[in-house]
Amino acid sequence: MRVTTLAGGIGGARFIRGLKAHLAASGQESHITVIGNTGDDIWVHGLRVCPDLDTVMYTLGDGIDTERGWGRRDETFHAKEELQAYGVEPTWFGLGDRDIGTHLVRTASLNAGYPLSDVTRALCARWKPGVELLPMTNDRAETHVIVDSPDVPGNRVAMHFQEWWIKYRASLPAHDFVFIGIENATPAPGVLEAIAEADVIVLPPSNPIVSIGTILAVPGITDALSQTDAPIVGISPIISGAPVRGMADACLTARGIETTALAVGLNYGARNSGGILDGWLVDTSDADAESDLEAAGIGCRAVPLFMTDVPATAAMAEHAIDLAQALRSAG
Ligand code: GDP
Ligand code: CA
Question: Considering the entire predicted model, what is its pTM?
Answer without folding.
Answer: 0.97
